[in-house]
Each structure stands twice: as C-alpha cells, then as structure tokens.
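Researcher: I'm preparing a figure for a lab meeting and need a structural model of a single chain. I don't have an experimental structure, so a prediction will have to do for now. The sequence is pasted below. Please return the structure as tokens so I can convert it later.
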Amino acid sequence: MPATRPTPKPPAIRAGWVLACAVLVLVGVAYLAFELGRVRGGYSFIDAAGQRAELMGQVAGLQDDNEGLRRQVAVLETAREVDREAYDQVEANLGDLQARIQAQEEELAFYRGIVAPEDGAAGLKVQALELFPVDLEANVRFRLHLVLVQAVKHDRRVSGVVNLVVAGERDGVAVSYPLSELTEDEGFEKLAFSFRYFQDFQTELTLPDNFRPRRVEVQLRPSGRGAKLVERVFDWAVTPS
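Model: Understood. Here is the structure written out token by token.
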C-alpha cells in the first residue's frame, strides 16, 4: 500500500501557534527582564521571602502578646470588681457596726439616767417625749413616745396617772386638747403607770383642723400619801422619721 502522507495544517492554524509561542516568549523575556532589574536594584527573592517569614513571625508574636495582655486586663478587671465588692461589704458592715454602737451608747445613756442622773435628783421623772410624723402630706397625724423613769432609788414601785395635754392655737385662739381627744386608743384615755425602773408609752395623735400645736404639757400624779406632783413641758418638736 502506498504510504499515507500527513494532512498539512492550514496556514491560519500554523500562524496561531506561532503567535502564541511568540507571546509566551515575550512574556518570559519581560519577566526575566523584570527579575533582572530587581536583582540589579538589590532585590533578592530569597531575602524577601525570608523577611516576609520574619515579619509573619513578628506578627504572630505580637498577636500572642496582645492576647496575653487581654487576659491580664480581664484578670485585673475581675480583681477590681472583687475588691469593690469587698470594700462595699466592709463599708456596709462598718455602717451596721456604727449603728449598733450608737444604739448601745444611747441605751447606756438611758440606763445611766436612771441609775445616776446628771442632776443627781432621785424620784419619778419624765425622761423623754418624742414625736414622729405619720402622715407627711396632711401633717396632722403623729406618733407620740413617752418615757417615765424612777431615778436613783428603785426599792419600791411607783404608781399613778399621767395627764397629757397638747397646747397651741386654733384660728388665732389659744386652746388645749387632752390626750383623750387626740387619740383613738381607748387605753390612753387615762395613762396609768406602775414600775420600778422605767415605763414607756406609745400612741398615735390626730390633730384637729387648723390647730397649730406649740407645746406638750405632761403631769404625773403618783398615788400614795405625800406623793409629789411631777410636771414637765416640752416644745412641740417633730423628729424626722
């Protein structure tokens, strides 16, 4: 059989291959020229790669340091919160302790007034009278606290009756109201006392309309032959609640 000759490629295809090869050669030459220019300018690909690796290592180290600093900040903030809570607790405990000390000092002063009063006088006394607001808006209701004591001598009980009057003005006229007209507590119509050391009373007062209180007059009438009347007057002064 006669030999088969290869089919020659069309001229257009051959021209395309030649053009592609030429382009690749030109690109290669251009890249080589670019690299040659960088080498002549002092650039080294190997050195650049090494510097890049070194910089990446530094970045990683800085990231680790940053993370460590974040942990330290978190620890410090936690410690600060713990210290603040501890300080608040100590401050609260200190306030409670001061309040207890003050209460104990007041209690001690009270008992000292019974056993050894400042004036040195013995017998039945009105130790204290306090008024506290109940209705701040209306300003007509108050809580009354009265304390009676028997100072120095306590060998026997002292008994009797308390007469209490609130004096003041109403519509420009001087007027007085006994305790029985100011309280709804039936047990306070007549305050009877009987004690050896001290006795206190508490009740709620409701003042009449347009009445302006000025003072509270307290009178103690002890029972028994020869018993002396005890009187004391207090200015109307309300203690803030």
